[in-house]
Amino acid sequence: MNILVVRNDKLGDFITALPTLYVLKHYSPSNRVIALVAPLNRKLAESCDFIDEVIVDEGGDILELAFTIKKGNIDASVTLFSNTRVAIAQFFARIPLRIAPATKIAQIFYNRRIPQRRSRVEMAEFEYNLQLARALFGDLSLDFPKPLLHFTDAPFRAFCTEYGITKPVVAFHPGFGGSSDANWTLNEYLQLVHLAEKNETINIVMTFGPDEENLYNEAKALLKESRVILYRSQGSIVDFAALLSRFKLFVSTSTGTYHLASAVGCETFTFFADTLFASAARWKSIGEESKQHHFMIPLDPAGRTAMFERVKSELTHFLLKGF
Fold first, then answer.
1. Burial of residue 5 (number of CB atoms within 10 Å: 0-12, 13-18, 19+)
2. Apex CA 68: angle with CA 63 and CA 73, to 5°?
3. Where in the chain is the domain with CATH 3.40.50.2000?
4. For the whole model, what pTM was predicted?
5. For 258-313, what is each residue's pLDDT tens digit?
């Protein structure tokens, strides 16, 4: 069976789709699993051995997308997050079985609609995605390995050589690309970094995305006398994932890089907004739960201050344990 799985939005959202892609591929050796993704997720999707083909949604018109999908000879589709454009494109592509959540007006273009009320947060996002896959195969096992993604250590070895890294790496990622509902300021991140600097048994790295040049320059100016390594990601998401897979701890807000770090097995300290929809209950990652440390940032100043003190205490305790 040729199965199309649609999740053509941001990095973190796509990572929540990976368990669904995995279990569909492993249900039967004859299944051909095709992922419809946004351009930024193409290389990551192509690196997954449980994805047979990748279709990139370049954002063209509905008929163009429908024509691209039709060439895949799709037997069934599982749309994890729908909008009217992708719904109509699949309808025009004449996919025989089209599964999607029974939400929004787009549902009228699917012929198997599954009631889901994700705003109630009765399970995590990746678990809602898996629920949709079981609508295709009722006896589908929803188990998947953790970590799910694996990479060679060659990129990390090159990284260590370039930056003189000889100790376990603890990384801080202060940016979020507008995809998080809560975060600390750069100055607050630097307080956490300075706490980590007291531990001489680790190397400390601050990571920045390719579009975070201003944040990078600001941090560089404030860390002139520091041993902290500032790293601007220059390669693909796959290159960055390979580095994360060898880091010991990744500290960030709840954004795509957090999901990537957890998916490759890195331990995480992660910050979430103190609301149900943006909470860890909704957006916990697909990695091992025991390696995910979640902190909800309250909206009120006093609560925010108290939570920051808790983060500092737990980070200090974590680093004292060693690696």
1. buried
2. 120
3. 2-134, 154-321
4. 0.95
5. 999 999 999 999 999 999 989 999 999 999 999 999 999 999 999 999 999 999 99
